[in-house]
């Protein structure tokens, strides 16, 4: 039986594990490793984005284009920065809204199709229902901005250590149904999926074509690892993508600190593991 196949353009390199290197170093590395697409993680020092404005979009776009790369997905940092989708205090809410709205505008200016979001999190010592409603309200407001800018928001589930809101398929579907906006769709993070003991098949069964993007990485199930360093079977995952007709991007969200010293070597090895599954 022939190996399942994906297009090289579907594999989107990310810059999270390059945080100790310059943006130019990251982009040069992607070019050398054979990537054609990137998912741009927005955090200093690579991309300056805050609740007031975004910076240097034309220069960033020029650097990407000059290397024959395309950016299709924008991911504003939303786990370690103070901005988050279920913020409680009024000032925190408004600063977070402006931050993510600026991310949507930057995504538009860079020519992206998608911007990644999640549910955010509430305080662990408050009523979950209140945090849930704040998240839904924020996501709807942002989806309205996304509609104006021609961007689709793609929402991932996160791990239980990160939130008590959208942490699995059931809660993701509940949030998507509640917000019910054409500019908010689903994405799969295979690490969070594994932690929740779920499968790609289950996500496609529940959401079908509304799965628009993926953070498609190996794991144990924890780790956000380079393919080959975890327990997932790359070929079987790609076989599922083929069977379900998935044509979206596969963001390589590699976050484990073991890769921070030499991220380019990690990306080379990661791409090598994809080679046998690439269309000619």
TrEMBL record:
Protein name, per record: Fructoselysine 3-epimerase
Keyword set, alphabetical order: Isomerase
GO molecular function: isomerase activity
InterPro entries with a match to the protein in the record: IolE/XylAMocC-like, Xyl_isomerase-like_sf, Xyl_isomerase-like_TIM-brl
EC nos: 5.1.3.-
Residue ranges annotated for the Xylose isomerase-like TIM barrel domain, each copy included: 32-269
UniProt enzyme class: isomerase
Sections of the chain in a coiled coil: none
Organism this protein belongs to: Caproicibacter fermentans
